[in-house]
Structure formats: C-alpha cells, structure tokens
Amino acid sequence: MEQDKMTVGIVGLGLIGGSMAIDLKRRGFASEVLGVESEPVNAAAACRIGLVDSVVPFAECVRRSDLVVLAVPVGAAVKMLPEVLDIFSCMEKDGAQGGDTRGRCRKIVIDVCSTKESLVKAVHYHPARGRYVATHPMAGTEYSGPWAAMPGLFDGRAAIICDGHESDNDAVRTVERLYDALNMRHIYMNASSHDVHAAYVSHISHVTSFALALTVLDKEKNEKHIFDLASGGFSSTVRLAKSNADMWVPILTQNRDNVLQVIDTYIGKMKQFRDAIADDDEDSVRSLIEDANRIKRIIR
C-alpha cells in the first residue's frame, strides 16, 4: 500500500519499536500509530509518554494497521508472523466474499529481528508470503523498554532488507519508504548471509561483553575496588553486557550454528594472544595487535 500516510501497528514497544513509533509519526510516514504490549507497566508507560496513539489487542492491531512491525524477540516473532499473515489471508477472503473488487489484501508486515533465516523459513509456503518483508535496522543501545525509546536512533544507520525477491514489489517499495523516513540506507542480502554477518559484527560482540562482565564480576568478589579502577575503555567494552536477556537468549539460540563458529574463531584468536604472552614473545604480541589495527581501515 503506497500512500502519503498510513496506520502503523507496532508489536513490542521497547527500544526499537518505540523509537520507530516516535520518528514514523513525527516525520509524517504514519498518520496513526497503534501499539501492542503484553507487559501492563510498559503499555501504560508507552501511552503516558506518547509513543503510540493507543494500545490495542494483537488481532485488532493487525486488522486496523496498514503496516505491522514485529518488534519483539525473534522467538516470539517466529510464532507471531504466521498469525499476522493468517489474519491478512482471512481479511482477503472476507473481502472477496463481500464483493470487494479491489484485489488481494495490500497490508504489509515487517520484522526488525537480529536473525532472519528462521523467520523466512516459517512462512516460506504461506499464501500471503508476499506481504512480508524481512528487515533488520542496524541500530540500538544496551537499554530496553519504552523508556529507552528515542528520536533519531536510526539516522544514518543501515537497514537490511532480506530475500526481497520473495516479497511483493509494492510491499518492498513501501518498506523502503519507511526506512527512508527513518533516514536509513538500504542494504539487500539473503537471509542466510545476513545471519552469518550478524553473528560476526553483532552477536559475538554481545557474547564477548557478557563473558568479560562475568570475568570481572568473579574477580570483584575478592577485590572490592576493581570497579574504582575501571576506565572508559572498560566501560565501552562491557557496555553491551547490560543488554536484555529476553532479547538475546532467542537471538543466540536461533543463530546457534553461526554464533558457535564465530565463538570458536574468537577462542582461537584469544589462544594466540595467550600463547604469545605466556612465551614472553613480544614480536608475536606486536604482530597480533598490528594485524588487529587493520580494523581502522573499516571502522573510524
């Protein structure tokens, strides 16, 4: 559905969903934003701080919205996505029986999850598959909940659109327009490649941060002043350890094989550092660090 403004339904009013709600309404993409939130405190907060126009039940949100955003953990999204497409199919059928001559249902559903392959497989054979566009806006912080939502979160970031050839052309164009409103650049890839890349650039960063936090917390049991010595480097490295387990447990389990491969590679690199340090091999330590410095060519 391509129109100047539309009703957008956002399922999950946390950091990503709430931040999308703010900018899609503020920047004129949405005329109305409906929200779905299972946690009563979060639902009340989302209404109170004005993230959405109203919080409604899931099925009502899907039926009233032109575009539905699944901004929930991937484990929940895998279950919800077929339900959304089922409702689309029922509405199309009801319209046909009622003499509606406008053609098939033109509603759209997207997800914003960090893994894609399980989602696209879950609806691969669904008759309404074309109305789903698999996406991943590459933005976020370590905070969660409606209070974490902020304007401008997505500005200048990448929006991944996966397996676009399996979606209807008009659905993809509308989703591109949505991400244009969020000031994001589009990147296209298949779901499998996305999950491999996400494991390397995002998922391993979180696992590493979690592990480092656990290491330091174990040490802190005996040395109470260790956090007094923490510098900015430590804070930035361990920042992701504040991330919500409800979001990251399903991400790591859904992307299990890719994450395990990256962890094994990371452990191998850690062993190289350990062996060089244990052997007092300064040349090897220097070589490893200088090899790592090449990342400056990519990340500024």
Structure description:
- By secondary structure, the protein is α/β, with parallel strands linked by helices.
- It folds into two domains: 6-189, Rossmann fold; 195-297, Orthogonal Bundle (6-phosphogluconate dehydrogenase C-terminal fold).
- The protein is built from eleven helices and eight strands.
- It has helices at residues 15-26, 40-48, 58-64, 74-97, 117-122, 169-181, 191-220, 232-238, 245-254, 256-278, 282-292; strands at 6-11, 30-36, 54-55, 67-70, 108-111, 132-137, 158-162, 185-189.
- The chain has an eight-stranded mixed β-sheet, with helices on both faces.
- Strand 1, helix 1 (15-26) and strand 2 (30-36) form a beta-alpha-beta unit.
- Helix 7 packs across helix 10 and helix 10 packs antiparallel against helix 11 (282-292).
- It is globular, with a radius of gyration of 22 Å.
- The two termini are 39 Å apart.
Quick summary of this structure?
It contains eleven helices and eight strands. With 300 residues, the protein is of the alpha/beta class. An eight-stranded mixed sheet has the order 3-2-1-4-5-6-7-8, with helices on both faces.
